[in-house]
Amino acid sequence: MKHTLIISVLLGAASLVGCTKVDDPFVDRVVAPVLVIIDNATGDGGGSTGEPVVSQKVSGPVTLAVRIYELDKAGILNNKVGIDSLPVASLALKLSTRAGTPLGELKTDATGKASIAKTWAELGIAAPAAGSSVQLTWTGEYKGQAFSRLSRVQAIN
To answer: Measuring CA to CA, which residue among 140, 138, 131 is closest to residue 66?
Structure first.
């Protein structure tokens, strides 16, 4: 009995020593260099939403806007300072459909905002009806690191 207990403890310890951290083989995760907020989206616009949805009327132009911020974490341990959001000016962005159709190139202004207006036909929907939607990808590069942000625009009456 005593020998069985000792062997069990030794085998358990040996298995712990042999464990190594294994990266996730399915998802290559890289922290985004910026915070991308989709304007006029349902909810918070992208802070914690996987795919923010912007609702636009079937008639009229589709206006899409985004705000880009760099997070200054220097005061993260000071509850009076915290994390500061600094607008990223003059950042080049590309907007495309998820299928890869380019929709335009934009540049952020001094407040970190960029916007574009398109027709539903330019988005690939010739006859939009309530519920029609287009999946979008916003891409850019900041401080040498590429990033992408997904969103969607949906038609309403």
So the answer is: 138
Dmax over Cα atoms in the chain, in whole Å? 82
73-78, long-range: CB < 8 A, 24+ apart: none
pLDDT digits (tens, 9 = 90+) for 61-79: 999 999 999 988 888 888 8
Phi, psi of 93 (to 5 degrees): -130, 155
Q: What is the pLDDT of residues 19-48, one digit of tens each?
A: 566 666 666 667 778 999 999 998 766 666
Q: Which two tokens stand for residue 129?
A: 């009806």
pTM, two decimals, is 0.76
Q: Would you state the structure tokens that stand for residue 41, as one six-digit string?
A: 């989206």
DSSP-assigned letters across all residues of 88-142: --S-EEEEEETTS-EEEEEE--TTSEEEEEE-TTTTT-SS--TT-EEEEEEEEEE
CB count within 10 Å of CB 114 equals 24
Q: Which residues pair with 117 in a beta bridge?
A: 63
Torsion of CA 73, 76, 82, 88, to 10 degrees: 0
Residue 6 CB neighbours (<10 A): 10
